[in-house]
Structures are given as C-alpha cells and as structure tokens.
Amino acid sequence: MRRAALRLCTLSKGLLAPSRGLTQEPQNPENVFHIREVRDKLREIVGASTNWRDHVKAMEERKLLHSFLAKSQKGLPPRTMKDSYIEVFLPLGSQPELREKYLTVQNTVRFGRILEDLDSLGVLICYMHNKIHSAKMSPLSIVTALVDKIDMCKKNLSPEQDIKFSGHVSWVGKTSMEVKMHMFQLHGNDFSPVLDATFVMVARDSENKGPAFVNPLILESPEEEELFQQGELNKGRRVAFSSTSLLKMAPTAEERTAIHEMFLNTLDPKTISFRSRVLPANAVWMENSKLKSLDICHPQERNIFNRIFGGFLMRKAYELGWATACNFGGSRPFIVAVDDIMFQKPVEVGSLLFLSSQVCFTQGNYIQVRVHSEVASLQDKEHMTTNVFHFTFMSEKEVPLVFPKTYGESMLYLDGQRHFKSMSAPVTLKRHYMVEP
Ligand SMILES: CCCCCCCCCCCCCCCCCC(=O)SCCNC(=O)CCNC(=O)[C@H](O)C(C)(C)COP(=O)(O)OP(=O)(O)OC[C@H]1O[C@@H](n2cnc3c(N)ncnc32)[C@H](O)[C@@H]1OP(=O)(O)O
Q: 0.95 cut: is pTM over it?
C-alpha cells in the first residue's frame, strides 16, 4: 500500500525535516529568485522564443546544443543537493500588485496558481542541478513526469502575506530526478510551512525527442543519505503500486466483498432482479457526480519546449476537480492532498483538451475526485489520454456516499478508496485551513 499522501508538515516529522534543514544554509544570492524571474530564467536557460512565430527558429537553434549532451552519466560531474537548492519569493504581502492573479473570491489563495508555480520551480531546480558552468544555455529539455504527492499543512493561506518556496534535487536516476519542494507563508516574523511536494522530472535531449543523462548526486550528510534512500523507496513503491493497479489485476478479496455489499444495498427489495437498482438514502450515483470541460490549448499556455505547460494542465484539472467536489458536497471544499499525477504524453499547442471529473469515493467530510484528461488535435478526432489526476478534498459538511452502478465504476470506486487510504495520518484539518481553487 502507498505511503502517506497526507502528513502534517511539522518540522518534527520524519524525513521532511532534514530536507527543510537545507534552508538553514547561508543563502547564495544567485539561487534566490523573485517569482517573476523564474520563467525568464528558464527561457534564458533553454533559449525559448518570446514570440510564437519564432518558435520553429528557436527549436532549430536548440538542435545545435545536441553536441553538449553527455554520452554517459559517468562523463558528468557529480552535484550536491545544495547545488540545486533554490529559494523563490512570492511577495503577495509586500507587492499587492501580484495578488490579483492568486486571489479567489473568498479572499484566499488560488491553489491552481500554486500548482503552476511548483511546476516551473521543479524544472528550474533540475536545471540548477545540471548546470554547465561554462555555458549559458542547457542542452537538456526537462519535463515533468510525475507529481508524486503534495502534502498540505494545517495553515491558512492568506493572499496578503508573503510566500516563500524552496527546493532541491533529492534523488537522481540515469535520466530522471526527484525534486522536493516546500512552501512557507509569513506569520508574524516567521515563515511557517504550508505544503511539501515531491515531483519527478525527466531529462530529454535538446529537441525533447529522446532521453538524456543527468549529473550524478553526491551525498554530504546522513540527512541527505536518508533523503536519497527515501527517493529509492519512492521509486520501488511506485513500481509496486502500478503493478497492483486495477487496470492490471483483480481487486483483493476484501475489496470484492465491499463492492458486492454495495451492489446488494442497491437492489430493489420489491423485485427479484439484478437489474432493478435503487439508490440508498443519502447517496448519489457516481455517474451523476460528473463535470466536464473543454479548453483550446493556445500558444500562450506553452512551455519552454513549445508543448503545453504541465502547470496549466494541473490548474485546469484542479479547478474542475474543485468545482466537482463543491457541486457534490454542497459546500466549500478544501484541498488536502494531491497525488500520483502522471504526465504520460506531451500536449501539443493547438490541441483540444477534454477534462472529465467525477467523485469516485467519499467518507465523512472527504471527497476523492478523479480527473481524466485527454487531447485531440483539430484535424484528427482520435482522443488520447495524457493524464489522470487524483485530488482529496475536505468539505465543510458531511457529504453523501457515492455509489457505483457498473463494474467499471466499481473499479474507479476502489481506485479512489486506495488513493484515499494512502493517507496514513489522522485527518485533523479544521475549518481555518483554507486552500481553495
Ligand atoms: C510569451 C512568452 C512565451 C515564451 C515561451 C516560453 C514560455 C515560458 C513559460 C515557461 C513556463 C515554465 C515551464 C517550465 C517547464 C515545465 C515543464 C513542463 O511543462 S513539461 C509538460 C508536462 N509534461 C510532459 O509533457 C511530459 C509528458 N510525458 C513524456 O513525455 C514521457 O512520458 C516521459 C518523457 C516523462 C517519460 O517517457 P518514457 O518513454 O517513459 O521514458 P523512458 O522510458 O526513457 O524513462 C526515462 C526516465 O523516466 C522515468 N520515468 C518515466 N515515467 C515516470 C514516472 N511516471 N514516474 C517516475 N519516473 C518516471 C524512468 O524511470 C526513467 O528514469 P531513469 O531510470 O532513466 O532515471
């Protein structure tokens, strides 16, 4: 079973503390950025075009960087966790002109915007790790492969207080890197933890066509060794989780019994028939919890490699997921966990983005939402899945139960339950905890 997706972000909690420990290091001014500098820095590193009409020329220029790619990982100098450590400031309090973009109507911070910032930040961290000191541009194209988890903390997120992000590479493979990021908000004179995030980024060649080696990582302290070990465990856990996926294997005996009991609960006692189904009290059929959206992926949403920015996809999916939870629960939902967002395929500029969201599991005040994302090009009507997003929300009130009708929906229910159960900590988030769309 998966490791916790939700843990409270206290400094005394296990492996996250040493990671934050890196924030105690003296700050290198070169590694401290204003949020507005992050995208400019990324554009500078990859030489991305500022105008869409120049994007083909910019890509042609990137082809020339191919010769800088390493033939093996051994040929690359090792890096420390501190080499990739950066801090990014989002001064919502001291620079009110930034607020509008981050504001919800309830005067809280838009979590979708935070997802976008984390994505850009994760990529910048990886470029810091793989920096070629003699060159301004990087031959690597770094893409987001997975949002492993985002653990929320019991803290208010005010649009009127400064925010700080920090992060570094915590594990490397041959072409992939795990990145740990933390977010803090100013309370009084101190920055208090808001969230912890773990992403996996993959390095590709200059044209984003094939894999590329990343610099090895050297570990300098027992804390860093522990973080690296955790990265190894995370990799193993992902493999184990995926091998027991309900898309590959039958549910466990316990899960099968639970589903059959739910089925029996929906049989009409007045008829002796498997087909006549009645919804139990305080329950909603899963099929009635759906919301859908369509977006056209305009060039404005492109990333530095002329594909659609992963953060944009996450924001869109998150906001639809939030609306689904709101519609279902009938009150304001708050995000408590995000996990296992896999970026399976890049999304081309100009694609049609179809998002389909549904509640797949509920318990008490909790709503587990799954958002399925697929794209189609304007010419070709064939749809292709690009992502599946899993969000756990907490509602202000207790929510109805959700009932599957078909076998496929039953599998969605069990998958949702598995994601929900992967939160090991007692869920104690209270009303003052406010992170909204
Ligand atoms: C107005 C001005 C405009 C200017 C223009 C510029 C605009 C500026 C705006 C910039 C905004 C900032 C953007 C920053 C960029 C953000 C990044 C993105 O958006 S990216 C967009 C969103 N993202 C995308 O679009 C990505 C879409 N996905 C893909 O392309 C592929 O699935 C893949 C490349 C990720 C993996 O391909 P696959 O064929 O499987 O690859 P391999 O088999 O070769 O394995 C390679 C390594 O990867 C590992 N690994 C693989 N999967 C996972 C996993 N799930 N979990 C964990 N690990 C995974 C695997 O273990 C292996 O590791 P290792 O052993 O070598 O260490």
A: no
